[in-house]
Amino acid sequence: MVCFASLAQAETVKLAVTDLVGLEELQREFGAFKNELAKVTGYEIEFLPVTNRTAAVEALRFNKVDFVLTGPAEYVVMQKRANARIVVGLSRPDYFATIITMADGPYGTVADLKGSKVGFGEVGSTSKHLGPIQALADAGLEPQRDVQIVNTKIPVLWEALKRGDVAAIGMNHQNFLSLRQQEMEKGGLQPGAFRVIARGPDLPHDVLMAGSHVDDKVVTVIRQAFVEHSDALIAAILTGKDNQKYSGMRFITNVKDSQYQYVRSMYATAGFPEYADFIGD
Fold first, then answer.
1. How many CA atoms lie within 13 A of 12 on its CB side?
2. Closest Cα to residue 263, out of 79, 69, 59?
3. What parts of the chain have a pLDDT lower than 50?
């Protein structure tokens, strides 16, 4: 076993999480995880809030942050622009994109969506934007040409689908299940009112990334902590209310760049070919 305290020597490392804005939100969702990681490594862990994905990339490029917890789409950008390394993957169960229509509507297949308006979530999101676009492409459409794409917040998309303002919406499967459950619980539509007409494959892991400036020794200590203290670190992550998307997760230490080639295909499909190049393992 690695002796974390002797290696760490009270070094301080800075950590960012890309889908959270503000120190208060970071502390609420990942405060317990930060404390547990500090406990098992001997490092002092400091949060660095970032306003968006672009800010996280720039922070890595200019050595303002040491580690970033992020999603598959962000990994592709960070690997290319900041030459960041994967420390560990966070494998999420049932993490894939779905295309949803109303069951009583005219859109029973992806082909039926041609010429219609389709709604997705935040631009750049792996499972709410890029994943659904690729699901359409995998089913035979050319999303940039065959449908009119609108991007907005997921709750807005849900209401737009029910009103018929859009023919279909794309989102994370877990988001769909949660919204469908909420709909039923508030006395609205029953689950059978909605139809999934396409789904993508399980998406690659979320990842903890290290900047190119981070010493190899530090990366080794952090990675080993996830191996030897997996249960405690997972439990700490799951104390965050919004982190329940990680329920049932496990840490993966042999993540390969080639596993993200499907994400690069998403970027090409969505009109961002600059992030479609394969790097290799």
1. 6
2. 79
3. 1-9
